[in-house]
User: Fold this.
Amino acid sequence: MALSPNEIKSRAISFIHDHKDDKYEKGESQLFWRDFFNIWGISAKKVGIFEERAKTLRQTTGFIDYFWPKTILIEQKSKGEDLDKALKQALDYCLTGGIPDEELPSYVCVCDFERLRLVNFIDREKSVEFKIIDLLDHLQRFNFLLGYEQREYKDEDPVNIKAAELMGKLHDELERNGFKEHPLKLMLVRLMFCFFADDTGIFNKDDFLFFIKERTKLDGSDLGLWIAQFFQVLNTPIENRQANLDEDLAKFPYVNGQLFEEVIPFAQFDHKLRIILIQACEFNWALVSPAIFGSLFQTVMNKAERRELGAHYTNEKNILKTIHGLFLDEFVEEFENLKSKKSIKGLEDLLARIRKIKILDPACGCGNFLILSYRELRRIEIRLLKEIRKLKGLGLELSIQTLNSLDVDCLYGIEIEEFPAQIAKTAIWIMDHLMNVEMGKEFGEYYVRLPLKKAPTIVIGNALRLKWEDIVNPRELSYIIGNPPFNGYSFQSKEQKLDMDLIFGDNKGTGVLDYVSSWYIKSAIFIKNTDIGVAFVSTNSICQGEQVSVLWKILQLNYGINIDFAHRTFKWTNEAKGKAAVHVIIIGFSQKGKKEKFIFDYSTGEPNRIQAKRINPYLVDANSLFIDKADKPICNVPEMIKGSSPTDGGHLILEDSILDEFLKQNIGCKKYIRQYIGSEEFINNKKRWCLWLKDSNPKDLREFNGVIERINKVKEFRSLSTKEATRKKADQPFLFAEERQPSNDYILIPRVSSESRKYIPIGFMSKDVILSDSAIALPSATLYHFGILISLMHNSWMRVVAGRLKSDYRYSNTIVYNNFPWPENPNTKQIKEIESLSQAVLDARSKYPNASLADLYDPLTMPKVLRDAHNKLDNAVDKAYRSKSFQSESERVEFLFELYEKYTNTLTSQIKKEKLKIRRTKV
Assistant:
């Protein structure tokens, strides 16, 4: 009786372990090949016949090792010998060794006990070479030994987008044929499982592919019926199947897990759809990570999103950053420590703890974070088992079925949409199977956990409105992990705004918060009085600008939340087409707090792990503090003001291209035209103009038809506004709605600047240049103020404290400037040096009159003379703060936070004294 596929795999694993244990170290080819053929149930006696038959093929170079007529010829060499030379020798036997044509082998095999090369004798391009320890991955290549047709393997193309594109084609064609909505989604999820099953050992390799190819008509007319019956078989226990069931269906296993339980309508296939299905089957799904593919799969279902395929695809590397920080690094470190101590008890205790772990992803999508968390836990479980058995002096072989291994019921997820929830559950089962195979390779036994008896708990619903306690007991939960939706306030739907109101209640100022902040509050409430650790990927804005004070005051003051680890801002990239990248942070937190804390900094590109004493909401190693909006600077420096806002519908603004024509038609109007500048114009050296009619002569205005026409349009624009304040400004349509033009020359600071720049470009402006509200002014400023503001010290502060517009820095006077700690007691020499070096920066700029500030401050094109001038200025500013030099931007920020805390504490004390003095005076 032929061996079952599972038995073949079990024997192969035993053979691999014998190889690892150097059972064949003496080069015993007879024992080696006897055991090798035994994998497929070929007896030692028959192997002896192969050996005897080979002796009849003597050549001048010696004897061939094994020959099975029509099937295989084997040339065995000692470890490390040249396989190319061995192959030439074997082929010579075939061609000149007296083998009759009718007995020529289909395959030639050469081996050196470490590597094996299998060559198709007819088509020698079809060859494969692998290490013996990887035999399990190549078993199907030897099916010809059992008389089965050798199946051709497709090239192992890079997975990334190709798999998703195939699913997209399948989706579109099914939908075109009228298969839609829930049945379509369920059909695709089931097919995805079958594709993986066909290539990862749940089914025999390519059985599903050949079932589709061989049993269905070329026109696809019967394919829908066959698939429906196929799904029914997968949902039926073997003992309950009909006795006369088609043998090509009967060989498939019982899956269970409710995946194939629901009856869905028959799908109508045609020739084109059948071809697409076969193409999807032929793809090597063993190369696809279930953790990655779910998001891609979800994306291709939406044609609009498909243009940016990969926009929601999450790179494994980035998910692992979250997992490592939350629990994996600790487990690995503890494992290595116990291993070095050879502590069996400690290892067993760690294993027991890992097997009790439960994880919740409350915005699980397609399950990426759960899948990879499960994979990593299973892998460390395997390492623990191996080490424990080694220390106990036991062999690696054991019955896996007797292990109390971690199972998928340790995973919990909440997802608002049905389709990704189904993908998540299916992908988790696939990952479980892959980990069972991985465990089997380590312990010498093939193991498939079928039928499925346990399932992850994936609940469909709005996580912000569900009671998480109804899904998992907080006393049993270990970790919360995930990547909740990012939406900023202006991008939130009406439903999402209601979610925010539900979570934040009467807390003030929450209208500025990103949607992701709701998951922080919900988690903080859930983990109260527990040891649960939480880690979320989040928009970096929740740790910058005005959001920090609003969100983290609630988290830390109301719920006692501690930040345990953090990844500072980095690009959450993917490797898909139409690469999408958002700037994110990762924050790990708990109520209990970890003793060891780490900050991952990306200032050099790759994450640099820094041990921290504490981590504050700005992700700085400093005491927790909240930088609120300040109406005035905390230091004795000039006040900064916003530029003027026209609110004019564009009618008071003149583009440079039309200025000359406008002046020709309105002769004498030039005295009312001023240069108009904002961030864009300043940085990119663009010219714009405006009608500045403050203190204008009404008689003059009436003479200029073009001016009157524009004023009328401003009046009309403001009158139609939905804002009452704007409608009131319609009474004076010739003036800017908000006029804040400095009466002195000023420093211009762009409100938005690229995150790629080391320094925000700032510069001096004449009071006659009208500043728009896209920039900020510092009137009556000196070269000393310029030097401090453009220094690395100030820019380091800005990068941490400022808000963001997408990835760009969003400078503000109330958050960044007014709270900035200036040097405490600079002496006259230091101030003069800063002024001198500030002028040197301006002089360096002037050497390039045709270059814009965007050109000059681009990291790739910044001139050396300007870079050198900035470096000297930075050193001088640093010395004004302290004599000891700063080693990094992080060190500068930590110092500034301490100085800020000192200044604000002093300021608070002064205010209290002043209030007390007033009270005493009144008394």
Q: What stands out?
A: The chain has 31 helices and 25 strands. The first strand starts at residue 66 and ends at 68. The CA atoms of residues 615 and 621 lie 5 Å apart.
